[in-house]
Every structure is written in C-alpha cells, then in structure tokens.
Specification:
mainly alpha, two-stranded antiparallel ribbon, 13 helices, globular
C-alpha cells in the first residue's frame, strides 16, 4: 500500500512539472486525453465483470451539463468542485437504472446502455433551455477562489485533470484488488459459482455501474472545463464508441494503460486530422486492428502479464 501512494505522489509531481513545460496546444490535448480516459476507466471497470457499456457518453454529458449549469446559474466556479459535482450528478441520475441493467449480459447490456445514451441525446437536442443542438458556453473556472490568469489557465486545467486522473487511477487499482473487485472478475468467469458462494451478482454489477457513471460524469465535467462549451454530441453514439475504443485498446488489466490509450487516441486524431483530414479514422482503425491482432488483451498486457509470471 505504502509504495503505491509514494509512486502516486511522485507521478503527480512529475506530471505537474512536465505539464508546465509543454506548449499550450499540447496541454489542451493531454487535458482532453486524461478527461476522456477517466470516462473510459468506467468502461474498463464494467469490462472486468464481462460487460461492455456503450452509454458512457451519456455519463459524460450529464457531468458536463451539470458542471456548466451550476457554473452559470449558481456561481460554483471552482475547478476542484465541479468535476466532483459532475460525477455525483451522473451517478445519482443513472443509479436507478443499475439494478435493471445488472440483469443483462453481452450484447443486451451494450445495446441497453447505448439506447440510454441516445435517449439522453434526443432529450438534450430538444431542450431549448439547455441550448438545443448547439449547446451553450461555459466561462473560465477558478481554483480555490483564485481567478486564473490568461497565461496559466491551460496549465492549471492540465494539473487539475492530471490530479484527478492519478487519484482516480489509484482508487480504481485498490478497488480492483478489493473483495468486490475480485468478485467482479469472478462474475466474468462464472457468475453461477459466485452466487453459490454467497455473493450477490446483481448488487455487484449495479454498484460497478454507478461507479462507472461517477467516473464518466467527472471526466465529462473536466472536458467541458477545458473546452468551455457543452452540447448534446457528448451523448451521441459515436462519442460513446470512442470511449469503448480506448477501453478495448487498453484492456482490462491495467489502469495506466487506459490513460495511455486515451493519449494515443488524441494524438492519432490530432495529427491525422492535420495531415490526413479525410482518412484519420482509417489510421485509427488500422492501429486498433494491429493491437487486437498482436495484443488481444490490450496494451496493459505488455506489463501486466510480466508481473503475473513467477
């Protein structure tokens, strides 16, 4: 336990120092990658139980809209408070659906979560008070009550997002190693045996769904803070597909791989859009095919499998 927290503290310090030296466009790219990585981390949590969620776009949208609305109408502007609020709102709104979804597996779970996301998209598009299909803008956040100077906004947002990513990653790793986390893996292998052992499969999957919603809402709020804008496309099926892409690319064995995969996606999208604007999806698809062919368990298997060997 102690080495984990020491390594996390060192990772936080190194990340903040490196972030301060990056140019502004790279700071923005890494901020978005880490925010989206948090959303995908929720998918990985569910994947460890044998299901894939195509509805994380809805969680991201709920967190983003919640952060933007309280910023505009309630005056809550703190960069540390808004992501937590976004995660809580996404968790509370979607928690009633957890027990229902916990009964389904495979393609049924995926399609139900996708349907939820698209229903959310339709509601947001038709709600004029939320900006309709155009969405609305969000102003500049503060940090602990202090207004951010123009030249430091991107650096502070990257530092805050990096901090949330590291802390969430450590907590996720601890959860994966906990009793409920190990039960989740057992559900993927043989849920009937888990029931015979006295553990509740339905409760475990419902709790995992709520935790995934919290991570998705938190990541969505961080993304909106960086973009300064929120619209219904956060909940569109293609956005959810990108989060699933990151989760598959990373695999379910490593938290670090999720963040690295999200960075890879942002880098491929940014550079391919600049040099090959019409075919960047092709480059991304080819990269995913290569990973699936040679690393079927994801990028995390590069080091997770080595640790597992005696």
């Amino acid at each position: 336990m102690r080495p984990l927290w020491m390594a996390s503290g060192l990772l936080l310090l190194l990340g903040w120092l490196a972030g301060a030296l990056l140019p502004r466009w790279l700071q923005f790219m890494f901020t978005m990658a880490l925010a989206n990585g948090l959303v995908s981390l929720g998918i990985v949590l569910l994947m460890r139980g044998g299901v894939v969620a195509f509805g994380q776009g809805l969680m991201s949208a709920l967190g983003g809209y919640a952060a933007a609305l309280v910023f505009l109408y309630w005056g809550w502007q703190d960069a540390l408070l808004l992501p937590l609020l976004g995660g809580l709102v996404a968790c509370v709104i979607t928690a009633p659906f957890g027990p229902l979804l916990a009964r389904y597996r495979g393609i049924f779970f995926s399609m139900l979560t996708l349907a939820m996301s698209m229903v959310g998209y339709g509601v947001l598009v038709k709600t004029d008070s939320l900006g309709g299909s155009d969405g609305f803008n969000m102003g500049r956040v503060t940090l602990l009550g202090q207004t951010l100077a123009d030249g430091h906004v991107s650096t502070v947002l990257l530092s805050v997002t990096w901090g949330f990513a590291v802390v969430s990653g450590v907590l996720a790793k601890l959860y994966f190693s906990s009793t409920r986390g190990l039960v989740t893996q057992a559900i993927r292998d043989n849920e009937l045996r888990v029931e015979y052992m006295g553990a509740s499969v339905a409760n475990t999957m419902a709790i995992n769904f709520s935790l995934a919603a919290f991570l998705g809402g938190m990541g969505g709020a961080l993304a909106v803070m960086a973009l300064g804008h929120i619209d219904p496309n956060f909940s569109y099926w293609t956005t959810s597909g990108e989060f699933v892409f990151v989760a598959i690319l990373a695999g379910s064995q490593s938290v670090l791989a999720v963040m690295l995969s999200s960075v890879v996606l942002e880098m491929v999208r940014s550079f391919s859009s600049a040099y090959f604007p019409s075919t960047w999806q092709l480059a991304l698809g080819l990269f995913l095919l290569l990973v699936i062919r040679f690393l079927p368990d994801g990028l995390g298997s590069l080091w997770a499998n080595k640790k597992a060997k005696p």
